[in-house]
Specification:
This protein is α/β, with parallel strands linked by helices and 383 residues long. It is built from 13 helices and 14 strands.
Length: 383
């Protein structure tokens, strides 16, 4: 395969995978003014900024309650713990996710059971979920954690129907789905709760680790709030044993500022994804992401599929285009989960996807010229 060394888009020399500075630059003075005020007044833990962020994020998610916490992994652990899930219980999730989803399950002492995904959208396959539950009637399945992947939610209507039939709780992993919707409904309004991560690269990202949980269940919200702060609601009254997973005040303040711009940034992501769609739809060497009807895809990642993914990734690197693979090794094949006894071939769809998926550069401020350069490079790589 011969690759040209020049492009028609000659002004572009390098495209990073993500440019966080581009989004921060316009709001930098606003952020720094707020941080300086908090430092001057020595406000570092809890307080009004955290409370107001919880209120504003719950309103954004169209849920009744939001509980801020230290990170997205903690958010999942706190939900599981609040539901009383622990040793002897089984929690179902998918193998094509970041390890945090499964880590949270084992962190509370429960066992992980993986279910394969559907090939079109790479989210939990309801048919395979139902088959597992029918084939394992004596397994103590207490919860299902569907992962809303790349910015598009899992098929929650079908998953919830199965969960109600088998009397199983559903926890939504929404770490990549800030603002995603199914017919107007957002994460947290389907399952008992949804866990969010505000890792800096997320659609709503902090300046460090941060997370939150949203729910419509008042009793559960109170218990999760206590669990995140040493089992208390008052300073020295500990009703239960909890954790130290509080959202820092400075991070809450930053997230409040950024939340005001999230809808604008989401629309930009969608617009830029549509540019990719238009430029790549005729390229037979790759497949563009599929979108479900009545689903709002917020494009945390723009993920294509290619039969010669590794070769394509290498060639794009030669053109100074950074790409990612989310995720290259399914969890059931990770060394950390060898003890579960899974083997290659157990989850063929997840394994197939792991060898084909490629995340292209995407952030709200990426220019059409940069996207065109990426797409031209993909075309050249196929020549």
């Amino acid at each position: 395969m011969k690759i040209m060394n020049t492009h028609e888009t000659k002004t572009i020399k390098k495209v990073p995978f993500m440019d966080l500075a581009a989004g921060l630059q316009p709001i930098y003075p606003e952020i720094m003014d707020k941080i300086q005020s908090l430092i001057t007044n020595t406000q570092f833990i809890g307080g009004e900024e955290v409370q107001r962020f919880e209120e504003e994020f719950a309103r954004f998610c169209k849920t009744k309650y939001a509980i801020a916490c230290g990170n997205g992994t903690d958010a999942l652990i706190i939900i599981l713990k609040a539901l009383g899930i622990g040793p002897g219980d089984v929690v179902i999730t998918v193998p094509n996710t970041f390890i945090a989803t499964a880590e949270a399950i084992t962190a509370v002492g429960a066992s992980v059971a993986f279910i394969d995904v559907d090939e079109e959208y790479a989210t939990l396959d309801p048919d395979k979920l139902r088959k597992y539950l029918l084939d394992h009637p004596k397994t103590k399945v207490k919860a299902i954690i569907p992962v809303h992947l790349y910015g598009q939610m899992a098929p929650m209507d079908k998953i919830m129907k199965i969960a109600r039939e088998f009397d199983i709780k559903v926890i939504e992993d929404a770490a990549q789905a800030h603002g995603a919707q199914i017919d107007g409904q957002q994460p947290g309004s389907f399952g008992v709760a949804a866990a969010f991560s505000f890792y800096p690269g997320k659609n709503l990202g902090a300046l460090g680790d941060a997370g939150a949980i949203v729910t419509n269940d008042k009793k559960l919200a109170l218990r999760m709030k206590m669990l995140s702060n040493h089992g208390r609601t008052k300073k020295y009254e500990h009703e239960i044993e909890g954790y130290n997973s509080r959202l820092d005040t400075i991070q809450a303040a930053v997230l409040r500022i950024k939340l005001k711009y999230l809808e604008k940034w989401t629309n930009l992501r969608i617009n830029k994804a549509e540019v990719y769609d238009r430029l790549l739809q005729k390229n037979k060497a790759v497949s563009i992401p599929k979108k479900r009807e009545k689903f709002l895809h917020v494009y945390h990642l723009y993920v294509i599929r290619a039969k010669t993914r590794d070769q394509l990734k290498e060639k794009l690197g030669e053109f100074s285009i950074a790409t990612g693979v989310h995720y290259p090794i399914p969890l059931h094949l990770q060394p950390a989960y060898q003890y579960l006894g899974y083997k290659r071939g157990d989850f063929p769809v997840a394994e197939k996807l792991a060898g084909a998926i490629l995340s292209l550069p995407l952030w709200p401020e990426i220019t059409e010229s940069e996207i065109q350069y990426v797409c031209e490079s993909i075309d050249l790589a196929g020549e």
